[in-house]
Amino acid sequence: MSFKGGWLNITEQKISEKEALLQYVLRLADDALILGQRLSEWCSKGPVLEQDIAMSNMALDHIGRARLLYQMAAEIKGDGTTEDDFAYKRDTNEFKNFLLLEQPNGHWGDTIAKLVFYDTLNYFLFEKLTESANENLAGIAQKAIKEITYHAQWSAEWMIRLGDGTEESKQKMQKSIDDIWMWVGEMFETDQVEEMMAVASIGYKTADLKDAWQSKINQVMEMATLTLPTDTWAQTGGRKGVHSEHLGYILAEMQFLPRAYPDAKW
Amino acid sequence: MGEEYSLEDRFQQYVEAENKVEPKDWMPEKYRQTVIRQMSQHAHSEVIGMQPEANWITRAPSLRSKLILLAKVQDEAGHGLYLYSATETLGITRDELINQLQTGKAKYSSIFNYPTVTWADMGAVGWLVDGAAIQNQVMLCRTSYGPYARAMVKICKEESFHQRQGYEIMMRLAAGTKEQKAMAQDALNRWWWPSLMMFGPSDDNSPNSAQSMKWRIKRKSNDTLRQEFVDKTVPQAEFIGLTIPDPDLKWNEERKSYDFGEMNWDEFYAVVKGNGPCNKQRIINHIKAHEEGAWVREAANAYAKKQQARKKQSAA
Ligand SMILES: [Fe+2]
Ligand SMILES: [Fe+2]
Question: How many CB atoms lie under 10 A from the CB of residue A232?
Fold first, then answer.
């Protein structure tokens, strides 16, 4: 299926390849940071100690990857901006993460649904990025692909476990999928930045990964005895900096200290 | 006639000769109960101790400090897990232990009943609370119960890491802006006395200590450990220009040790009895996470059973 949607009508302005690369790296970094921040909220609240640890592990991976990408972005920008400036001194409209990733954690199944859809795409994307024409980006992807592979496996296993677990867990898991679904389609949009990066063999169009993603997701759904919604209307805006109401609160919390003490170094 | 020893006597000689007691060895029932109490209390402390620090993960002021804090709290979860497993070797299940925690039958370190109100508390907790924990745990590396001693060896390495990371936060704050330094001093003011109380009542008021020492579960008295901690920590505070909030603190040249003031024992016992600012909150949170996770654990069990049955069927 293909998604359509969006209430936004923003015309894109022509940008340089350097600017496109900066934007591209920043959006990957924002995805990683916002998801990592969300997953870190689970710490001390997991359903069992072992999974609390597993979830923290994933949060650490995402935030660690965000750091590498922000450092790369800082280098591209080359004006003294630091990784922390990107994380702590930008407002919602400057964050370009997928809307899916800023959605609240909900219960364990809600988080798992979010993760399965994102992790699976992230796996196919980073697999491609290991061969990026940009050495820095390729290096980051090569470093991250092992953990990203594990994330996709871990979340898929949880979805199967919950879908094929008890009657209650099956119902809950199905509802989680249905509820999060409208945030998924956005991940396959193409825009100028992605187009330019694909042409330069630096990035990759997620739209071209849709089939691989779809067949993997179908397979997981089948094993989980769950069904994918057929609705194709998708929310949009993340890559343009137009977010859901949740991101403002994430930033308010995350950025509180550097904003309250602008002269301080931590 | 040769000498006749009771099992108890032989056990006593065995531990006095610095032998380790292993799960399958005979041990006095009171020894078993004492070790269960102490180990589970330790495990619960690791787990409940996650809460006051997890409180600041989403607000850590830099990406680097966020990663360090998250990894630290994750370590504590690992310690809890490891200690629960080690406690299970004494014939009690993790479910029973968790039930004891949630019903108030088992205790955890009272220090975690204080709130973490500023970022500097992440420094103070690492530096002082992990620091005090190390003092105790280094001793426990030589405790008589084998699985406990081995767990401590493993855990101690990580705790000293935590202590250094906490001290590093304090150092940065103390060398930072006026507001940051004030934040660090305020945290030290609030955490100093509760940290000293972590070592428990003074030796005169510690009825169980003597038997624990005799069994080589405990190797040093509460007051000895407390003194060691004070002697180690005061110069660290001075080095970064912070002041220990104790007007009676004074170097004693004769003892080559610091004299320090009397602790507020009324507060200590009040918090132990459940009247600290966060006692209720910590347990409510633990129960909430546990109950909200029930359907997840049930599903995982049900799925594992189905998988097992499928395997059997396909093998048949
Ligand atoms: Fe610990
Ligand atoms: Fe620790």
Answer: 13
pLDDT of A227 reads: 97
Q: Place domain A18-229+236-242 in its CATH homologous superfamily.
A: Ferritin, core subunit, four-helix bundle (1.20.1260.10)
Cβ pair A67:B58 closer than 8 A: no
- The answer to whether A56 contacts B294, with C-beta atoms less than 8 Å apart, is no
pLDDT bin (cut points 50, 70, 90) of residue A6 is low
pLDDT tens, position by position, B3-55:
678 999 999 999 999 999 999 999 999 999 999 999 999 999 999 999 999 99
Quote the tokens at residue A211: 């089939």
Rounded-to-10 torsion of CA B76, B77, B82, B85 = 140
Ligand nearest to the CA of B72: 2
- Contacts of residue A253 in chain B, CB cutoff 8 Å? 58-59
Q: How far is CA B302 from CA B199, B294, B298, B306, in A?
A: 44, 12, 6, 6
Query: Is the pLDDT reported for residue A5 higher than 80?
Result: no
ipTM score over 0.90, yes or no: yes
Q: Please tell me the predicted confidence (pLDDT) of residue B207.
A: 78
Q: Do B62 and A88 touch (CB under 8 A)?
A: yes
Kindly report the length of chain A. 266
Chain A residue whose CA is closest to B54:
A43
Dig out the tokens for A73 from the structure: 């972005």
Contact B301, A55 (CB under 8 A): no
Compute the C-alpha angle A231/A232/A235, nearest 5°: 110
Question: Would an 8 Å CB–CB cutoff place A107 in contact with chain B?
Answer: yes
Q: How far is B51 from chain A (nearest CA, A)?
A: 6
Distance CA A34, CA A125 (A): 18
What digits encode the pLDDT tens for the residues B66-119?
999 999 999 999 999 999 999 999 999 999 999 999 999 999 999 999 999 999
The C-alpha atoms of residue A177 and residue A217 are separated, in whole angstroms, by 12
Query: How far, in Å, CA of A185 to CA of A233, rounded?
Result: 8
B interface with A, Cβ–Cβ below 8 Å:
47, 50-51, 54, 57-67, 70-71, 73-74, 77-78, 80-81, 84, 119, 172, 176-177, 179-180, 285, 288-289, 292-300, 302-303, 306
Cα separation of A231 and A168, whole Å?
Answer: 24
What letter would DSSP give residue B21?
B
The reply to whether residue B294 touches residue A50, judged by beta carbons under 8 angstroms, is no
Q: At what angle do helices B63-88 and B94-102 cross, to 10 degrees?
A: 110
What are the pLDDT digits (tens) for A80-103?
999 999 999 999 999 999 999 999
